[in-house]
Each structure stands twice: as C-alpha cells, then as structure tokens.
C-alpha cells in the first residue's frame, strides 16, 4: 500500500497534535472533573466483576452471591450519579431537537443558556429532597437487607452528585453567556 502526500501530511499534523496535548499539564479543574469519572469507572468494573462471579457461581456451583441484587443497585446508583456532572457539563445528554430548525442561531444560543440554567435550578430541589430523605434514613437507622449497609450513605452520594450536576448545568449556562467558545459542543 502506497502513502500519498495528503496521508503523510495528515499523519504529521496528528503527530504534532498528540505531542502538544501530551506536553500540556492538566489543570486542577481537569483533575477534579476526572475524579467522578474514575469513581464511575471503578464501580462499573466492580459491577462487571461481581456479575461475572455471580453468574459463574450460580451456574457452576448453584450458589449465587446473596447480596448481588443489593450491590447492583448500589453500584448502579454510583455509576449513574457520578457520571451526571461530566455528562451535563459536556452537553452529552440525549436531546430531542425537534424545534432546532425553528430557532435562528442567535436565539438558539439564548435558548441553550436559559435551558442550562433552568435545568440546574430545577435539580437543586431534588438534591435537597434526597439529602432530607437520607437524613431521615440515618435517623431511623435504616440498613440494607443483606449487607446491613447504612442506607443514608448512598442517599448522601446521590444528593451530593445531584447538587454537583445542578452546579455543572448552571456553570455551563453562565459560561455560554460569558465565554461561549469555551463550552464543550455536543
């Protein structure tokens, strides 16, 4: 297979881009944003491993992991809610864009700003309500059925990351207003 001049030029540009990005030092904000992503990845790996072991034990030894359902619920909560702030900041939610052709570009920008801020404001109430429910579970001493794990801990986690997601939406809306070129595009 023969390489053309265009192919060689494209590879050279890609090599330069890779060198430049590898030499950049990540900012503190970048590292903070990666923490929930790594939490979600770790719990996804744990869920995958536990599910594999459960299926293997169930099939081969007729002895499933008793707390697998409980752990699956906890792991799924961690995976989903740890991922939400980054997904919200990057605008990677599933979006139905039926009205996009109706809005001109200038109005679309304002629509997106208002939607981001409205979504962030709307998420503050569920965050507060989940926190209250977690505190009630703590007061009652509620624990999970098999493991005896305190139910308020996942509640706190969900409430915290719902609040962080709300702040991510609000920050995205404000950033769209102040410095629109720095907001990640869909």
Molecular structure report:
With 186 residues, the protein is mostly helical. The chain has one domain (27-182). It contains 5 helices and no strands.
Q: What's the number of structural domains?
A: 1
Count, helices: 5
Q: What is the strand tally?
A: 0
Overall mean pLDDT = 86
- Residues in helices, as a percent range: over 70%
Major beta-sheet overview? none
Q: From the alpha carbons, calculate the radius of gyration and give it in angstroms.
A: 22 Å
* Multimeric organization: single chain
Kindly, what is the distance between the CA atoms of the first and last residues, rounded to a whole number of angstroms? 36 Å
Strand content: under 5%
Class derived from helix and strand content: mainly alpha
- Could you list the spans in which at least 5 consecutive residues all have pLDDT below 50? 15-22
Sequence-ordered SSE layout with sheet pairings:
Blueprint: H1 5-23, H2 28-60, H3 68-90, H4 105-140, H5 152-178
Helix pairs in contact: 2-3, 3-5, 4-5
């Amino acid at each position: 297979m023969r390489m053309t001049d265009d192919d060689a030029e494209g590879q050279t540009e890609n090599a330069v881009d890779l060198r430049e990005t590898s030499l950049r030092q990540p900012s503190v904000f970048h590292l903070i944003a990666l923490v929930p992503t790594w939490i979600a990845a770790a719990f996804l790996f744990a869920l995958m491993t536990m599910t594999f072991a459960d299926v293997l034990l169930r099939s081969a030894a007729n002895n499933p992991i008793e707390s697998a359902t409980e752990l699956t619920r906890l792991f799924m909560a961690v995976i989903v809610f740890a991922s939400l702030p980054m997904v919200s900041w990057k605008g990677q939610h599933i979006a139905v864009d039926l009205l996009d052709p109706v809005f001109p570009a200038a109005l679309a920008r304002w629509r997106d700003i208002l939607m981001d801020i409205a979504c962030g404001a709307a998420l503050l109430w569920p965050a507060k309500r989940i926190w209250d429910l977690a505190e009630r579970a703590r007061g009652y001493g509620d624990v999970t059925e098999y493991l005896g794990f305190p139910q308020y801990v996942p509640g706190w986690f969900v409430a915290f990351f719902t609040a962080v997601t709300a702040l991510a939406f609000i920050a995205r809306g404000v950033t769209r207003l102040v410095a629109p070129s720095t907001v990640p595009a869909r």
